[in-house]
Amino acid sequence: MRFMLKVNIPVESGNAAAKAGKLGETIESILADQKPEAAYFTDNHGQRTGFIFLEMKEASQIPAIAEPWFLALDASIELHPVMIPDDLAKAGPAIDKAVKKYASHTHA
């Protein structure tokens, strides 16, 4: 299953790694191990942030994905399942079923 890993690197630990000349090298090393489909870097809430898209077959892989970011950069992470357009197309029948069952209900 495809997941989006959001990595937020605190300013202090990111600055310390940058000043030591290790920020890029550390990120490159983690990405080389994780072999993501794609990785994008930007800012989020004033922190260096990565949006990394990767495949996971089972939940037991979460520590191998999360721990390098925690240990090397004191990062916080979020991990979310995501879909590509083909996945969304396959979900069509489930969406239709939910619409038929729940869309006619009124919400208070």
TrEMBL record:
Species: Rhodanobacter ginsengisoli
Protein name: Panthothenate synthetase
Top-level taxon in the UniProt lineage: Bacteria
